[in-house]
Amino acid sequence: MSELSKTQIAWSLMLDRDSFEVSEIANDSTMPLEQCRTFINKLVKQDAVAIIDGLGWYRRPYVYRVVDTSKARVGKGNYNQTSNQLAPGQQTIWNAVRVHRHFTNLQIELTTLASIKSINAYLRHLEKAGYLIRKKLDKTVSNSKRCGQRDYFRLKPAFDTGRKAPIFRREVGMYDQNINTLFEFKI
Description:
alpha+beta; about 35% helix
């Protein structure tokens, strides 16, 4: 028989009681107080536990009650965790790149909520890894004729590997999660 974790012990104590405080569960489960508070707050966000009384102060702590046991995710590995390894900005930039195919950095900025600095950095990394081709403007043309025009990028069709954004690996390259391949930077 496997040994129960502290969170599983704390959850079983919560189920046994009509109402409880963080300090009660922490003392009875031998879980550190802050870890117990974090665990209960996580259950509140999952709508498995509800605050029924108290102000959350030192002398008037919150009083909780278990509301819905089906929504609670407790224990190690018994639920699917979604891993978010990269910033949401990179994922939205990648989504915009896949939609536009031919684009400028300003088009990506208008499509996403990412800053122009992070867009330029991510596009530069994609270009160095071979995902993008940059079409530079002709510098011999006068400024008045190229007014409002910018360098544009094109996504190579072979590098449209899937919905998950490539992850930047510092000084090495871009790791493509969709095909589990590292594309090294080209100099």
